[in-house]
Write a sequence for this structure.
């Protein structure tokens, strides 16, 4: 029997107090197709040992990323994380620390957050960065809300090649705030009319580079058009390693830069936890969500660190808060900082070049196959191929042959009708043999 501390009478009293006819009404805002109609097909009564065995059998059905040639990306990337990173973040002073609210006992936490902010600001070529956020998609949504506050407008324009998960997260936030959103259709080869959608009613335009299809986007003309219309440019990235080689968004005129930091210091880990990066211009700092660690001196003139800006609902009156982001993924931010410190500027650039070279080699091999077309004229470590028939079927057939060959775009956006496209990523973890195996397996599948 499961442990259910509430009696039917208890539950009836609680529902009556809030005016709900039944438990199902509590889930009314969750779409019906996202809810389970019945209990999952799992045994209800098992001992601890039997539960371990059952879960182990379920886990064995997964194909670990490191066990086969792996070319999956689409917003989460497999990179080598030095053993030093995991060793350091598991030290008790980092692993068990919680909040840096008491600076007299949290100098270590505050200092690494300060260093993290410095790294993010330098990578993005921005003036200030916050002490991290949940992940890239929620950071993008917060950037839109911040742009609304800065411009006193409430309509955002989303580029068609923004990652669908980021677009959906922004749409969810804007829908609850009843804020209009213009979302352009996807354009795999980068041919959308983004500039034509920017006018004097727009608060911000949200553009990803490299975009979800891997295309590199020149942000400068978009920034010029946005600024002429009184709007802000929100630049998004999902692959942080690209900043080691691609011109940073801040140097191209971005006003807010957001993205996912998972690629540096954080393993794939079945989807999380990850770490959102958020940077902006100094003039907008008081509208930035989250919190900011700053440098100061104590009463004896010694260097120290404090929370300089905390515009969250926990700290100030709700009407003055910039967000309700309640965590900063601190341990993931620390992993990011340790890994980036180990790399240094030259190491990050070298890592980025290795990624780009691997992707170029794979793109050449796949483009040489009959029936395969590489759609990109430019890319970093991810590109898009068109295959005959269903991309999802091709990917599944490749997986059965021991090759994780990428992400069918239809999995991210089934409504788009782009069922023949595969997003393919090649990082420094792919070997020349891996890339040859992929090309040989794809040739066999298409034959």
């Amino acid at each position: 029997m499961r442990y259910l501390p509430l009696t039917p009478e208890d539950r009836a009293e609680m529902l009556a107090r809030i005016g709900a006819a039944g438990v199902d009404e509590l889930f009314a805002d969750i779409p019906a197709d996202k809810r389970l109609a019945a209990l999952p097909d799992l045994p209800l009564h098992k001992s601890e040992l039997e539960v371990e065995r059952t879960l182990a059998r379920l886990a064995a059905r997964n194909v670990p990323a490191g066990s086969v040639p792996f070319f999956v990306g689409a917003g989460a990337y497999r990179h080598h994380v030095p053993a030093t990173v995991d060793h350091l973040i598991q030290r008790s002073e980092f692993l068990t620390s919680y909040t840096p609210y008491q600076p007299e006992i949290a100098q270590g936490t505050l200092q690494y957050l300060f260093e993290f902010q410095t790294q993010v600001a330098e990578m993005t070529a921005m003036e200030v960065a916050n002490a991290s956020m949940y992940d890239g998609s929620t950071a993008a949504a917060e950037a839109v809300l911040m742009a609304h506050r800065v411009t006193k407008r409430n309509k955002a324009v989303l580029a068609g090649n923004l990652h669908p998960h980021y677009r959906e997260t922004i749409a969810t936030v804007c829908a609850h705030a009843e804020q209009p959103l213009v979302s352009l259709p996807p354009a795999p080869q980068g041919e959308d009319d983004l500039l034509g959608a920017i006018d004097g009613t727009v608060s911000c335009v949200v553009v990803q580079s490299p975009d979800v299809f891997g295309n590199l986007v020149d942000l400068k003309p978009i920034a010029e058009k946005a600024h002429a219309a009184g709007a802000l440019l929100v630049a998004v990235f999902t692959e942080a390693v690209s900043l080691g080689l691609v011109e940073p968004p801040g140097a191209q005129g971005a006003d807010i830069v957001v993205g996912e930091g998972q690629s540096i210091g954080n393993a794939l880990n079945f989807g999380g936890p990850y770490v959102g990066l958020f940077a902006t211009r100094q003039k907008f700092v008081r509208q930035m969500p989250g919190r900011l660690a700053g440098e100061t001196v104590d009463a004896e003139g010694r260097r120290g660190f404090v929370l300089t800006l905390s515009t969250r609902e926990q700290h100030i009156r709700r009407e003055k808060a910039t967000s309700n982001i309640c965590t900063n993924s601190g341990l993931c931010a620390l992993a990011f900082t340790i890994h980036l410190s180990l790399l240094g500027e030259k190491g990050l650039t070298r890592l980025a070049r290795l990624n780009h070279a691997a992707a170029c080699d794979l793109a050449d091999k796949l483009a040489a196959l009959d029936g395969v077309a590489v759609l990109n004229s430019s890319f970093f470590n991810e590109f898009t191929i068109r295959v005959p028939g269903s991309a999802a079927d091709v990917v599944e057939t490749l997986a059965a042959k021991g090759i994780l060959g990428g992400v069918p775009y239809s999995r991210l956006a089934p409504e788009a009708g782009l069922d023949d496209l595969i997003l393919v990523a090649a990082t420094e973890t792919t070997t020349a043999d891996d890339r040859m195996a992929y090309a040989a397996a794809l040739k066999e599948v298409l034959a």
